[in-house]
C-alpha cells in the first residue's frame, strides 16, 4: 500500500489561539504514524502566498484520512477554527 501525504497551506491570524491547535495536533499525528517532512515558509512561485506550508507523510491514505476524521484531530481543528485560514489536501504517493 503506498504512503500518503497531507499537504497543508496555512496563514495564522491569531497566534495565541493557534497555540491551542499546536498543543493538540501532534498527538493525533503520532497516533496515525505521521512524520513531518517539511514545515515552514516556502517560496511561492505562482498562486496564493501562504504563511506556512506543511507536508506530513502517513503510512497510507487510510491512515491519513483516519487521522483527519479522528476525535483528537477534530478537537485540534476546533482549536484553530478562528486562529488561521488553511487549505489541506491528501495525495497518495506513487508506487
Notes on the structure:
The longest helix is centred in the N-terminal third of the chain and has 17 residues, at 15-31. A 4-stranded antiparallel β-sheet has the order 2-3-1-4. 38% of the residues lie in helices and 33% in strands. The mean pLDDT is 96. The protein is globular. The protein is an alpha+beta fold and 95 residues long.
Give the topology, please.
Elements: E1 4-12, H1 15-31, E2 35-40, E3 52-58, H2 61-69, H3 71-80, E4 84-92
Antiparallel strand pairs: 1-3, 1-4, 2-3
Helix pairs in contact: 1-3
Task: Count up the helices.
Answer: 3
Inertia-based shape: globular
Strand order of the largest sheet: 2-3-1-4
The overall pLDDT, averaged over residues, is 96
* Helical coverage, percent range: 25-40%
- Report the β-strand fraction as a percent range: 25-35%
Q: How many distinct beta strands?
A: 4
CATH topology: Alpha-Beta Plaits
Secondary structure class reads: alpha+beta
Written as H for each helix and E for each strand, in order along the chain, the element string is EHEEHHE
Largest sheet: 4 strands, antiparallel
Q: Which CATH first-tier class would you pick? A: Alpha Beta
- Which stretches are poorly predicted, pLDDT < 50 over at least 5 residues? none
Query: End-to-end span in angstroms?
Result: 8 Å
Q: What is the CATH architecture assignment?
A: 2-Layer Sandwich
Q: Rg, please?
A: 13 Å
Estimate nothing, just give the exact number of structural domains.
1
